[in-house]
Amino acid sequence: MNREQWSSKLGFILAAAGSAVGLGNIWRFSYVVGTEGGAAFVLLYLVIISLIGYPLLTTEIAIGRKTQRNPVGAFKALAPNSPWWLVGGMGVLAGFVILSFYSIVAGWSLAYTAKAITGFDATADFTGMFVGHITSLWPPIIWHAIFMALTIGIIASGVVNGIQRASKILMPALFIIILILVVRGLTLPGAGAGVSFFLSPDFSEVTSKTFLRAIGQSFFTLSLGMGALITYGSYLKREDNISDSAAWIVGIDTAVALLAGFAIFPAVFALGFEPGSGAGLAFMTLPAVFASMPFGTLFGFMFFFLLAIAALTSAISLLEVVVAWIVDEKGWSRTKAAFTLGGIIFLTGLPPTLGFSVLSDIKFLGMDILDTYDFFASDVMLPLGGLLTAVFAAHVWKTKNAIEEINSPKGVISFGNWYTVLVGYIIPIAIAIVMIVGIYDKVIK
Length: 445
Known about the structure:
Keywords: Membrane, Transmembrane, Transmembrane helix, Transport
Strand content: under 5%
Main location: membrane
Organism: Desulfuribacillus stibiiarsenatis
Number of helices: 19
Distance between the termini: 51 Å
Largest sheet: none
InterPro entries: Na/ntran_symport, SNS_sf, YocR/YhdH-like
Protein name: Na+-dependent transporter
C-alpha cells in the first residue's frame, strides 16, 4: 500500500503547526500567564520551549520520517523484538483519551461562538451562564457530537485532501482573526496596563511552581509525547529538511500564544477585569469583557470562533494518530477507521461530558471525571511518553543516527553534539521533574 505524503513542505508545516496550535495556546496559555505573574512567566516559557520543546519536537518528526510508520510501527521498526513499541502504544492511547475530553472543551467553544452571535449582556451573570451550560444534560453532548463530526469528516478525507487542505484554510484564518483581535485590544483606552503586564517582567513573582508550569505549558502546547508529530513526520518527504520545518512549527505555535496574550490582556486591563481569574478566563471573564467593549458582539464572535478553529486543528492530529495506527497495523480503510474510532472516542467522552450533571457525584482521587481523564493523559502518559522518546532517541536509536536523519538534507539549522546533551540527559530529567511534581500536587499533597 502506497503511503500518502504531504504535497509540499508548506502543507506539512501548516498541518504540524495546526497540531501544535490549539486551546493550549489561547485558552490555557493566557490563563497561566494571568495566574503566574505575566511577563516573567512569558520569558521563562520562551527559553524552555527553545531548549526543550524544539529538540524533542524535531526528534519525533525524525522518528516518523525515518520509519514512515505510525507511533507503534515506528518504535517496532527502530527497535525490533523489544518492548519499546509500548511507548508508541502509549502515545496512541493518550491521543485517544485526550481527544475524548478535548472535544468537550472544544464543544464549549462552539457553543459560545453561537451565544456570541446574539451578543453578551453586560448585566448577565457570566459565571452562572457557564456553569449552567456545562451542568445541563443535552447541550454539551450535542456540541461534543458536532465537534467530533467535523474532526471525523476531515480525517476521513485523507492526508492531502483532508488534513492538509483544512490546515491551509484554518491556519491563515486563525492568524487573520487573532491579528484583528490584537488591533482591537491594543486600541482600547487603558490598554497600556495590559501590555506592561505582558511585557515587563517582575522576577520577584517567579517561584519553582512558575518554572514547572512553564515546562508543562511548552510540553502541552507542542503536542509532545502523544505520537502526533511522529505520525505527521511519517508523511514527510525525504527531500524536506526537518530542523528548519520544526523551527517554523515552534515559531508559529509561539507566535499564536504571544498574539493571544496581546489580544486578551490589553482588553482585560482596559475594561478593569482580573487577569488572574484562572481557567475561567475564556468562558467567564472574557464574555464580560466583550459585553463592555464597543462592537463587542463582533469581537466576541471572532474570539470564540478563533478558539474553535484552534481546537479543530489540534483535534484532527489527535484522531490521525489513532487512525494511522489502525490503518497501518490492521489494514483498515481510512474511512472505516475514522468513523469507527471517532465514534468510539465520542462515546468515551460521554462520561466526562456528563461529569458536571448526572455523574457529578463520581470522583476519582478527589477529581471529577473530566479532570481524571486530563490527569492520566496529560500529567502521566504525555510526559512519560516524551521522556521515554528522548531516552530512546539518545540511547537506543543513538543520537548519531538521529542527528544524521535530522540533518538530511541539511538546513539552515544544523544539529550537533549539543543535541546529545539535551536529549540524552537534560530533557528526560526536566520532564521527570515536571511529571513527579505534577503527580505529587494532584494526588499526594
